[in-house]
Amino acid sequence: MKQLAAFILGLFLTSPALADGTINTLSAGAALTGTELLPMFQTANPAVTTTPNALKTFVTATGVVTSVAAGCGTTASPSPITTTGTIFAAEVPNLRAGTTYTIANADCGTLNNFSNAASIAVTLPQAGSGGNFANGWYNDVCSIGAGTATITPTTSTIGGVATLVLTTNKCARIVSDGTNYQVVTYGGGGSGTPGGANTNVQFNNSGAFGGDAGFTYTTLGQVTIAGGTITTNNKALTITQTWNNAATTFDAPLLVNITNTASAAGSLVADLQVGGSSVFNVTKAGLINVPGQAGSAPATAGIQFASSTGQPSAIYVNGAINDLEFSANGSASVMALWGSNTVFLNSIGVLNWKVAPLGSGVLGDTGIVRGNTGYLALYDPVSPTTATGFAVYNTVDTATGPTNYERGVFDWTTTANVLTVGTANGGTGSARSLHLSANNTTMTFGQSTFGYISVNFAGGGFTLANGIFLGFSGSGGAVAGALISADSGIGRVLAALLEVHNGTAAGVAQLRINGQTITSLPGGTAPACNATYSGARATVNNSSQTFSSANFGAIISTTTGTNVVPVVCDGANWRIG
Questions:
Q1: How does DSSP assign 33-70, residue by residue?
Q2: Highest-confidence range of 56-70, 93-107, 324-338, 376-390, by mean pLDDT?
Q3: For labelling alongside 124, which of 133, 148, 189, 379 has CA 20 to 30 A away?
Q4: What order do you get walking across the sheet with 268-274 strand by strand?
């Protein structure tokens, strides 16, 4: 103030030098009217005049504050402040007892307490609408009654969502960013005091902290869910999700990720137990174990596959014999794997081949089944009277419906009602021979009613049973029943006695020995023969001798002719007879 007085005094003095030592001798002036003339200097002498009003205009034009009013969340005293005063923060609480309320722009910096016991619907106008609820506007809200207050902005979001829900004793500060509302929540709980016993995991118990005795914290990263004894269905853990983005690969809702730096061989990543014993576990190597018990059934051990239309199927370990068994449609085991190299089928099990689709309760058209002890059968399960067959390929283009092939056959399909054993070929395949081998022993053909034909490979014999004859038919290819129409045959009459007949025992027939030249007779140089051919008969077709009583028994002449005569070897020579 002294500096200001000196300045004004200087204005009244005709020279700055007069201010020194004289200001204190002047008497106080009257109140200024604003029009008084005051001397002043402007950069140099001589002095000029000004007025208090001119000085005021000069000072206010350069930024003098003339009035200060309180803003959002503050109070001014006096209000507004035009000279001196105090500004201080003052959040005014407002009790909102109804079930509805619309927050006003004037609520900025105040506290709205919602006290109704019922649900309270609170409306919050759009941020920045009409210049109101501008960036920086804020309001504190609390739910102090039993009812839940739901704050819903118009158009804007609140905390990034559509609504803000305040349960009992829950508070929030709502701040506008000019477009949406941001939220800081606080309060709630049982006055901050945890519920339940020590280590109980906390939950919201009607707005207060609650402790779950069955859900406890054990140590870092470990919790225990103890469901206790229950008498009604009560799931301990339920996980629900809705996946709704085809471009996203979602993780499993229950994910276990273990870093195996070091662990014992029996370490498990999952283990399900009943009565303290494991019934399902997964090893650290990814192997799935389903521990079984001796004599256990599919319902209590193994993996069971449920069906919505029929009985379940299962794969399980039979603990009594330690084999892996398979059952289907609720039946007993149909197949089992035992030891390192054995596959079992039950006594009525069928290996059944079917054109897709599989299942559907319909059998396939080809099956192999155990017919009896040591007896395997190939048949058509759909139509057991339909002929079947078996093929062994030498070459083939495709096993199902081949075009080019060479194969051996054992079937009832080549010729109806005839069992065919032989070879067959098609397309570019070549005809192949059939070799029957009995490994240096006897091979027998026939049946008990009519006898057998045996080939003794060890002794080189070919034996026909009594009553069996070699028959020859003039009707072409041999088929079943061909012997009935045979018109020539050789059969046994008695021991050491054979006959040639017309296909019927004792029937009339002839035996012809085709002629040969005299020089081609065996057993030495004709007419000689040796003991090996003693009793052998032949026919020569170039004899000079005739077959007559006069020549009967004569040694055949080597002189050639045109006569046909029978000859017999007496061990030394060929003789006519």
A1: -S---EEEEESEEEEEEE-HHHHHHHHHTTT----B--
A2: 93-107
A3: 189
A4: 268-274, 277-283, 288-289
Rounded Cα distance, 519 and 524, in Å: 9
Residues 477 and 413 in one domain: yes
Assess whether 398 and 449 both reside in one domain.
yes
HSE, CB side, 13 Å, CA atoms: give it for residue 507: 14
Task: Write the DSSP symbol of residue 358.
Answer: P
Averaged pLDDT, 283-301: 65
Q: Is residue 242 part of a domain?
A: no
CA distance 540 to 517: 5
What is residue 345's three-state secondary structure? Answer: strand
**Mean pLDDT value of segment 41-66:** 73
| 8 A C-beta contact, residue 252 and residue 243 | no
Least confident of 100-109, 206-215, 480-489, 499-508: 480-489
- The pLDDT of residue 13: 47
Cβ atoms 345, 333 nearer than 8 A: no
Q: Is 143 exposed, middle or buried (0-12, 13-18, 19+ CB in 10 A)?
A: buried
Is-contact 76 86, C-beta < 8 A?
yes
Structural domain span for residue 24: 2-60
In a domain, 184, yes or no: no
pLDDT, position 287: 81
Q: What is the DSSP string of 373-388?
A: TTEEEEE-SS-TTS--
201/217 Cα distance (integer angstroms)? 6
Are 52 and 110 in the same domain?
no
Q: What is the amino acid identity at position 171?
A: C
- 339-352, pLDDT tens digit by residue? 778 887 777 777 87
Inside any domain, residue 152: yes
Mean pLDDT of 504-533: 89
Identify the pLDDT of residue 31.
81
Task: Kindly state whether residue 77 falls inside one of the protein's structural domains.
Answer: no
CA distance 172 to 111: 10
Which of 289, 312, 346 represents a domain boundary (last residue)? 346
pLDDT band at 17 (very low <50, low <70, confident <90, very high): very low
**Mean pLDDT along residues 25-35:** 78
Number of domains the chain contains = 6
- CB of 144 within 8 A of CB of 114? yes
Residue type, 507: G
54 and 93 housed in the same domain: no
- Same domain (yes/no): 495, 424: yes
402 prior amide bond cis, ω within 30: no
Domain boundary among 501, 534, 551: 501
One domain for residues 276 and 334: yes
